[in-house]
Write a structure and sequence with these properties.
This protein is of the alpha/beta class and 170 residues long. It has one domain: Rossmann fold. The strands form two sheets. It has a five-stranded mixed β-sheet, with helices on one face. Strands 2-3 form a two-stranded parallel sheet.
Amino acid sequence: MGIGIPGSGKTTVLKKLADDYQYAYICPDDIRQELTGDIKDQSKNQEVWAEAYRRLEEFLGAGRTVVFDATFANDLARKNCLDLARQYGAGKIQGIYIDLPLEVAKERNASRERVVPEQVLERMHDSISSCPPSLLEGFDSVFTLDEFHRFVTAESKIDNKEIKKEFDLR
């Protein structure tokens, strides 16, 4: 499960992961494009998320590993997806959190084809900063990548014990 604000590089990392290992890939933005013809069209979000979760159920039911690419800026959205993934048969759920300074995301966002309004970026950044992903939400592990997509920290559950490693590879 990818976690990070727009412009963080989340999709770049997650698409490569899915492609490299032939994992199923789900991205609500892609589904939004399919359903509305416009990735920016937020009018069918309920249908978009219903379809994303339907695909999650389908892929997990078929025994596939799934890469889910969404912002997941708040713990309630992450918890909902985690609960559904477990319900649909996920045996192990890992979070990949792209931790990016807001100013870097704003710079990247400005050069993207689909520019997210700055106030939306700020709101998402504030939300994820105040409640970053954690093992307490139900992840089996959480990997934190910095703006250069290098591991900074990793947390895992091993036999119900939490282990945190600091990697800071700079």
